[in-house]
Amino acid sequence: MSFLLKTMVGNPMKSFGLGGSNEEKKDEGEATDPAAAAGMTREEFEEYQRQLVEEQMERDAQFAQKKAERATLRVHMREKYRLPKSEKDDNQIQMAGDDIDLPEDLQKMVAEDQDEEEEKSSILGQIQNIQNMDMDTIKEKATATFTEIKQTAEEKCALM
Questions:
Q1: Per-block average pLDDT, block size 10, for the chain (160 residues)?
Q2: What's the predicted TM-score (pTM) here?
């Protein structure tokens, strides 16, 4: 019976601060140590924190490098298609430093595009384009166009 009375009266009294246990007071007064909360010694916790900071710095450096590579590619494309330059791309390239290289597959793509443009702009490229034309198709298109123009003129002209 005393247990029942103690439970009914004791628990509500603890919430008012009138009858608390020593453990609660000890937890409130003691400063919590993050190393102890993680289950490590202080040295292990400091080493762990240092490793986290180093990994974050490495990730940030890799991210900046990737952004600079993309910016370099955009600069190449803008030069190729004669588009206006972007200050944002220039800033990203400068932040990453001078040792920016495009990945190998992108370098191949840029080189292939430059080779194709050089071939097209050369005299040999123009001659090849002439050889690739189908003269019969061109004659048929010209004849069809001439016939259409002639029919349109006959319909509109009262004398013909």
A1: 64 57 48 73 90 95 88 84 87 78 76 76 66 74 89 76
A2: 0.45
